[in-house]
Amino acid sequence: MNYISTRGQTPALSFSDAVATGLAPDGGLFLPERLPNLSGLLARWAGCTYPELCAEFFGHFATDIPAAELRDMAERAYRTFDHKDVAPLVQLDERTFVLELFHGPTLAFKDFALQFLGNLYERQCRERGQSINVLGATSGDTGSAAIHGLLGKPGTAIFILYPDGRTSPLQERQMACTGAPNVFALCVNGTFDDAQAALKDVFGDQDFRTRHRLSAVNSINLARVLAQCVYYLWAWLRLPAEVRPRIEFVVPTGNFGNVLAGWMLRRMGVPIPGFRVATNQNDILYRLFQTGEYRIGDVHPSLAPSMDIQIASNFERFLYYSLGSDPARVREVMGALKTDGAYRFDRFDRDCFTASRCDDADIPGIIRDLYQKFNYIADPHTACGFKDVRPDRVSVVLATAHPAKFPETIVSAIGVEPRHPSLEALKARPLVKHRIAAEPAAIKRFIDTNAV
Ligand SMILES: *Cc1c(COP(=O)(O)O)cnc(C)c1O
Asked: Which of 131, 142, 231, 342 gives 87 a disulfide partner, CB atoms 3.0 to 4.6 angstroms apart?
């Protein structure tokens, strides 16, 4: 299987090369040149364990990696999760299921992709006999999940910039208390955008980039989207057969990476009737699905911070398929978005999507209701999925983070402090962070000194 760019001006690459490259040189995102049809395999896959299912699924995409290695990488990736089902499906009542995606090392769904991606990077180092230095900026969950994907892996080092005082204290501890010698948590003065701008500059220096074999960590890596398809497949296989035709996967959404994975799985022949894009008050995607207009606005910080986005970076993949897999049309729309900050689709096919929007004012009340009705504690991101539940569907709400990551919001809603042993352990460990100016020269000096 080869991988092509949504903008059509990059030669096709193998799976491993597309994963190593990240963003395509023409500015587009990688996609498989065609999607396999999996419908004939579903019955056979019903008995697989989570890692077995992951390896089977990737066997259709990572065709340049031997099956035994895929099995080994999946086995090691999901062994770090603290639940035997990896992604347990919990039933609240006859119309509501929760798919818990927070049992990984950093207690958020991004672990599903980044634990596996860490193993792909490690394999790449071994195969090529070269080290890799991974560099990224984060406002929270992505940075800690990426760090835990590479923790202690030989031949790798990871540098994550984050804005001082703007991630939650627990997220900072997840990055800065690992004790691993290949992890560098870099705390910058300024905002996430300042960090991101400095980083862009560092990546723009081709010499520097090549010298240190720098790789970017961000939400657009193709392997991340594919690894996320697996839990939709897992959940679908576990739902009672009579319920499947009535389900709607409800996905707390920011960059559109999570829900895109589910929708791509549907295009591979898994009969999923529908998806709901659940946004917080940063509702660019809600407005798109309501009106057909994609209009970039300002970001308003919310109680569900990992969904506070302005531009949904994975949207371009959806666009590619929606525009009839025509790269020229993708270039045209992305160009218009860049110059006008908006695009109105004249014939917008909502396909199987619905959308909902949840204000900060709604979140504590939803958390309280769920606790009173089901004795279930949802984190503020997951809570957004319980807004405007459709009575004619069976909702499968994706729980994207563990409530213990957001203790203030939970305590203010229900007066109970959620806890998790791994977060308690972090509170006792020394915090090792490096203060650095949000300037390309300072970042390069730091990498020169500490790169592998
Ligand atoms: C990243 C994240 C999201 C948003 O996921 P996207 O793939 O960006 O749509 C939602 N909830 C939590 C807890 C997250 O960390």
From this structure: 231
User: What b/e readout covers 104-115, taking b as 16+ CB neighbours within 10 angstroms?
Assistant: bbbbbbbbbbbb
The answer to whether the pTM exceeds 0.85 is yes
- Interatomic CA distance for residues 416 and 407, integer angstroms: 9
Q: Using alpha carbons only, give the angle 133, 80, 424 rounded to the nearest 5 degrees.
A: 95
Q: What is the pLDDT of residues 374-393, one digit of tens each?
A: 999 999 999 999 999 999 99
Please check the confidence at residue 166 and state whether its pLDDT lies above 90: no
Parallel, antiparallel or unpaired: strands 132-137 and 214-216: parallel
Q: Which of 141, 263, 398 to mutate to test the pocket of ligand 1 (most atoms within 8 A of CB)?
A: 141
Residue with tokens 């699924």: 57
100, 106, 107, 110, best to mutate for ligand 1 pocket (most atoms within 8 Å of CB) = 110
Give the per-residue pLDDT at 431. 93
Atom of ligand 1 lying closest to residue 145 CA: 15
In angstroms, rounded to a whole number, what is the distance separating the alpha carbons of residues 429 and 176?
9
Residue nearest to atom 4 of ligand 1 (CA): 254
Q: What is the phi-psi region of residue 147: left when phi exceeds 0, alpha when psi lies from -120 to 50, beta otherwise?
A: alpha
Tens-place pLDDT, residues 28-67: 999 999 999 999 999 999 999 999 999 999 999 999 999 9
CATH fold of 84-108+223-420: Rossmann fold (3.40.50)
Beta strands in 102-225 (DSSP E): 132-137, 156-163, 183-188, 214-216
Q: What separation in Å is there between the alpha carbon of 130 and the centre of ligand 1?
A: 32
In contact, 144 and 433? CB cutoff 8 Å:
no
Contact indicator for 330, 278 with CB cutoff of 8 Å: no
Question: Is 290 exposed, middle or buried (CB count within 10 Å of its CB: 0-12, 13-18, 19+)?
Answer: middle
